Amino acid sequence: LPIHLSIGRHFRQEGEVDRAILIHQNLLAHPQLSTENAHAVTFELARDYKAAGLFDRAESLLEELVFTRDLSDQARRLLLSILERQKDWEQAIELISKWDCKRDPDLAKRMGHYHCEIAVSQLESGRHNLARHHLDYASKVDPKNPRALLLLAQLKSAEHGFVQAIGYLRSLVEEHPDFSPLAVDLLVVCSDATSTKPKMRDFLKRIYLKHRNDRILLALA
Hints:
By secondary structure, the protein is an all-alpha fold. The chain is 77% helix and 0% strand.
């Protein structure tokens, strides 16, 4: 079995996905295959289907494997990558919610990303309440998510909540100085609206002295 699995992986890596699929399908048809080995072969077949762009077939196999004891975590992560590829954010959120994001920073960042993607769609449709809901959740699971901070600032600015928008933008620049060019235009608008432009420039100068980031100099130009 290990030799056949290795050959199947080799074919898949070389782009000969049809041959890999055939090998793994033949292995699954073997009458003496144990349950544990069947799970291993099924997982490889799901990887074949993903490589071939047959996402529905891969999902179908992985949805069974997520309930197994030996491959549950691997199956979930592969299924998650397929959902990301298809931009199925709602289903990705449902899947990832079955993990403990507090113990896995990578999962928390992914969850925040999914909620931001949905929020962008809601903002474009003018559904500010739904957008706010997803952005609040993104900030909850990943408090330092730069995209969530920027989108929250944009949302508050659109609602004329300029003071709150400035708060989000300051947090964004402090935590992620490389994002300063993305924040500065809106920060200027909000500072003008609240007559706090001198404070804004002093803030950006302080951030530059702290991080010595040339992008902040561009923001001050």
